[in-house]
Amino acid sequence: MLIPNKKIAVLSPVAWRTPPRQYGAWETVASNIAEGLVARGWDVTLFATADSVTSAHLHAVVKHGYEEDRDIDPK
User: Fold this and answer.
1) What CA–CA distance (Å, rounded) separates 42 from 19?
2) What is the pLDDT of residue 5?
3) Average pLDDT for consecutive 10-residue bins of the chain (75 residues)?
4) b/e map 45-64, b = 16+ CB within 10 Å
5) Among 34, 58, 64, 71, which one has the highest count of C-beta atoms within 10 angstroms of its own C-beta?
6) In 1-75, which residue ranges form alpha helices assigned H by DSSP?
């Protein structure tokens, strides 16, 4: 049964990109949730770093993860 207008936002930490290149447990979880919901027909917006890779709508809050770019102040 399809429910019309299924929309959801997924918030990912911004320590690493989503999904992470190496380490990033919570970024991996956010990616798996977002991709799984997209595959099931949901309209998903992922809030994450600009270099994230997703089939959801990406809304970037920072250019790179602060653990990957030491010039970024995480606060």
Assistant:
1) 19
2) 80
3) 81 94 92 97 97 97 87 76
4) bbbbbebbebebebeeeeeb
5) 34
6) 25-39
